[in-house]
Fold this protein.
Amino acid sequence: MVAERIYAIGDVHGRADLLRALLAHIGGEAPDGMVIFLGDLIDRGPDSRGVLDLVAAHLRANPASRLLLGNHDWFLREFLQGSLDASGLELWADRYGAMGALRSYGISDPASDWQAARRVVLKRHPSHLQLLAGAEYCVVKGDLCFVHAGLRPGVPLSQQSPTDMMWIKEDFLDHRVSFGHLVVHGHSPTPSGLPEIHSNRIALDTHAFRSGHLSAAAFDGGALSHFLRTTVTPDGAVGIEHLG
């Protein structure tokens, strides 16, 4: 039985404004609560750097909280480690939002000199590589399994691959049988735009970078208590909805 309050936060994708408001609300609702960031902190939205700063600060202040590595975060980690080859850089830039993420560091044209961009980030924000290098692929708390993308059906939890846990989609989403744990995940935006409860999983990616709705699930004693979701007014003020 899991006794503590746990919050799982879905894909942030560069929306530091939404994450800041959500973390402030969580801090007021349960100051001792554990936060599990489900990954994909960066790309798409306008302030990837700011999101990483917020998460790093939260983890320093709340060492029980955890960060999972999303597939977008993987690109930045590999880039900062010098492990991303030319084809990886091209893929990140063309399909996954590298330009916007690196511009949030004040780099106007990252692709003109990738190595110079890497040196800028490492010099100005060395904690960001430390943050991503320390991220996990899966966190299990009692009957709950927290993961970025999902699990491969038919594979024991101990044998799940990092690639599947960061990238899997249809094979996981179409599976209707229990995985042995209730899986809490992001990665695949929900069709409804709301947090969704399925028989074997809870989905929390609500397209925050586009919709303004960053979602979190709160668990008490291992059981779902409620959802939180950010809202944005026409003048840009961020509020919090309590769902369920």
